[in-house]
């Protein structure tokens, strides 16, 4: 006898988003050239909420940056994305990796700390990053590697906000204020929009409980399986990144950074109270 479980409203909305996300597999994030891209705020932008989201980052800087680093490794486990990254040639050596990820950190710092307005550092940064994504996508497409699609951009947004929302207890991130967390979600809804994510694929446009449920689903059904497929190219890329920052991350190794990443993802054998009610 089969018993069907009744889904809650949160679960229904999260499931609907999850299934709809796969329709974006063949939908490029952007097309054309960088000259065609328009940088603008979304119509639902809330300046007060956005600044509160930035403050949440400021209050939890170390944990959020640690989450971003582990998310980078997790996202690199996707074979297609990894090949596009390899194709750019910007992570193939320790020096190239150092330049790339220092640049990434500078961009993130601008997004988290600068005012978001036309002409500001964060505005210029978001515009530049979106153009770079389009250039990399076009180049990869021309070489039959594939293009950067809307689904991949949505998954990338998880890399910035997912772990802080659903694994804060493993990262030393405070999670006792709902409004702060909602503001952080709004911040990433805005940044996702400005990086080219369409509203229907923007995880962060849902209410907090739905966003968290979507993040749990992505972790369980996409990231956890892919992280367990450690290809030689993946290992090489991760080692290159670790070797690029000995002064900033002393005493780290492939094994140590992967241990924490697997623990955050919840890979069997690395779980630590992941189901404890927070």
TrEMBL record:
Start and end residues of each ER-bound oxygenase mpaB/mpaB'/Rubber oxygenase catalytic domain: 56-199
GO MF, one example: oxidoreductase activity
UniProt-listed Pfam families: MPAB_Lcp_cat (PF09995)
Source species, domain of life: Eukaryota
Cross-referenced PANTHER family: GH11867P (PTHR37159)
Name this polypeptide is given: ER-bound oxygenase mpaB/mpaB'/Rubber oxygenase catalytic domain-containing protein
Organism of provenance: Anopheles atroparvus
């Amino acid at each position: 006898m089969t018993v069907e479980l009744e889904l809650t409203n949160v679960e229904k909305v999260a499931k609907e988003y999850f299934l709809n996300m796969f329709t974006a597999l063949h939908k490029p994030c952007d097309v054309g050239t960088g000259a065609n891209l328009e940088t603008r705020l979304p119509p639902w932008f809330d300046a007060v909420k956005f600044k509160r989201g930035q403050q949440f980052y400021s209050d939890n800087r170390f944990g959020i940056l640690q989450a971003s680093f582990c998310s980078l490794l997790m996202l690199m486990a996707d074979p297609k994305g990894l090949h596009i990254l390899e194709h750019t040639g910007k992570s193939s050596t320790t020096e190239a990796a150092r330049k790339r990820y220092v640049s990434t950190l500078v961009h993130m710092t601008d997004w988290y700390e600068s005012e978001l307005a036309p002409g500001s550092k964060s505005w210029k940064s978001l515009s530049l990053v979106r153009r770079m994504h389009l250039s990399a996508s076009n180049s990869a497409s021309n070489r039959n590697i594939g293009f950067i699609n809307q689904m991949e951009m949505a998954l990338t947004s998880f890399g910035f906000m997912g772990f802080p929302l659903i694994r804060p207890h493993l990262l030393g991130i405070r999670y006792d204020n709902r409004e702060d967390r909602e503001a952080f979600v709004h911040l990433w809804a805005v940044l996702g929009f400005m990086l080219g994510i369409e509203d229907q694929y923007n995880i962060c446009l849902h209410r907090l409980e739905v966003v968290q449920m979507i993040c749990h689903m992505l972790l369980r059904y996409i990231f956890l399986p892919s992280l367990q497929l450690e290809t030689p190219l993946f290992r090489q890329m991760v080692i290159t990144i670790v070797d690029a920052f000995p002064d900033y991350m002393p005493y780290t190794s492939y094994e140590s950074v992967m241990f924490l990443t697997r623990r955050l993802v919840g890979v069997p054998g690395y779980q630590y109270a992941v189901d404890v009610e927070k």
